[in-house]
Amino acid sequence: MQRINAVSLTHNGKDWLADSDHPGILHIFDNVCNLINERSEILSIVTPQIGKGPFNLVLEKDILFSGYLRRESQILIFQTQLQLGDLTIQTVNANLWTPTPDWATLHAKRAEICNQILSLPVTFLQPSLPVQLLSTFSTAMIVPDLVTTLATAKQLAGLGQGLTPAGDDFILGAILAAWILHSWKVAKHLAEEITNVAAPLTTSLSAAWLRSAGRGEAGIRWHEFFESLISGDPVSIQKAMDKILAIGETSGADALAGFISVFAAQRNR
User: Fold this and answer.
1) 1 close to 86: Cβ distance less than 8 angstroms
2) Which of 189, 197, 243, 262 shows the greatest Cβ crowding within 10 Å of its Cβ?
3) For residue range 206-253, what is the model confidence (pLDDT) as tens digits?
4) Mind spelling out the 3-state secondary structure of the chain?
5) What are the pLDDT digits (tens) for 139-195?
6) Closest Cα to residue 12, out of 50, 64, 49, 52?
């Protein structure tokens, strides 16, 4: 039996642990174990290499999940710990992390941020998705044209391969851009509506990421990227962007493409 401490979780993670009765293991990777409950809500148990996220429970040190777990491993939830097969995770001292960026400050600096974003060397706009569809979606988000936005979001949702298809990643990045460019009220309505139509059309994991963006939440690498945009330091911006680009095979690049495309649509408008 291996025991390890959790060092960070979010309010979403706390609620998941409190409200899940019959969870199961969805995916097992070297650095991530995704759990799913009876409402198809996700809790990701991750190593420090992956870091903080809207529904991540971060462990204090690296561990190879495949060495302790199988898909059929039993999951038991106690008040101060989580038992996954032969792995016991102490949760009582985990710090609560807030996954919501400082949207008010980002919105106030949106003009400067737009100039910074559009001066970046963009070489990762993926050709695997229909360019006209991406352009229509991005432009509709800026207007905002809710009817066109939702119609194109339905076409993008689930488009592509993998646990988080490219179309979903593009939508996620676009939603994060909307939180910066639009007022909080407009962004909230737009993000929630997009999430409501897109999440049911894709994988459980991708839906969880879309719903988190719909609530105005983002992972730690996006937080670092946003902080660098507020600082305006080009070196910090590039380093933070490189960390996002390293997410998955193309997930980070696809999400950044969506983010930048909305800013480009804002400039063109």
Assistant:
1) yes
2) 262
3) 999 999 999 999 999 999 999 999 999 999 999 999 999 999 989 999
4) CEEEEEEEECHHHHHHHHHCCCCEEEEECCCEEEEECCCCCEEEEECCCCCCCCCEEEECCCCCHHHCCCCCCCEEECCCEEEECCEEEECCCCEECCCCCCHHHHHHCHHHHHHHHHCCCCCCCCCCCCHHHHHHHHHHHHCCCHHHHHHHHHHHCCCCCCCCCHHHHHHHHHHHHHHHHCCHHHHHHHHHHHHHHHHHHCCHHHHHHHHHHHCCCCCHHHHHHHHHHHHCCHHHHHHHHHHHHCCCCCHHHHHHHHHHHHHHHHHHC
5) 999 999 999 999 999 999 999 988 999 999 999 999 999 999 999 999 999 999 999
6) 52
> Residue 218 is encoded by which pair of tokens?
């983002």
Report the C-alpha gap between 224 and 222 in whole angstroms.
Answer: 5
Scanning the structure block, which residue is given the tokens 């800013």?
Answer: 263
Beta partners for 46? Answer: 32, 58
Whether the pLDDT of residue 126 is over 80: the answer is no
